[in-house]
Prior knowledge:
By secondary structure, this protein is α/β, with parallel strands linked by helices. It contains 10 helices and 10 strands.
Amino acid sequence: MATRLFVTGTDTGVGKTHVSQALLLALGSQGWRSAAMKPVASGCTLQHGQWQNDDALALQAAASLQRDYVDVNPYALPEPTAPQIAARRVDCRIEMAPVLSAAQRLAVGADLLLVEGVGGWMAPLGDALMQADLARALNCQVILVVGLRLGCLNHALLSERAIRADGLPLAGWIGSALAPDFAHAADYHQLLEQQLECPWLGSLPFQTDVSQAAQALDGRRLAGVIGLA
């Protein structure tokens, strides 16, 4: 069975997709076969007669195993707003079963299935579906992307507490630089390492391309941490 990772963040806009791409490439460089999915994506455009999302397309491209878009992104919602609102606008109900079916197809032949969530950990996927529900059903380990900015200590500690309270295994955290000149960046990083219980798995510099971002992560160590090696 493929190892399964659920990538969440301390908030929306903290670089979950960029980190996910980097993870896929870093692990791919070690020879691990990967598939990826963004089960629910709001903010889609009509391309080739199909609603598609840029983040989902980026994950599809970074995975080493190419899969059908409809499995990579089972719920593609046009409006760029909270999934619950976007789903209501198109009279859609987001449910677990289609996501689990897509994940099963994606995982065939894969060593790793990476699943990217929406917003922060407590952002609902649907009216009756929380991210913890899906991560638990898929038997995922969680990686927390910490957006490095003012307030990140609070956001990171609260997120870690919530993930653990939901009973999910937290593999570690990855820092994501959101500005080129974040004051006291080294001090914040030191505090995060000291105060978070889960291990630090790497940090991505500000606005690096995905290849450079992948090089900032230690693919061999990552594989060991999540049980691939």
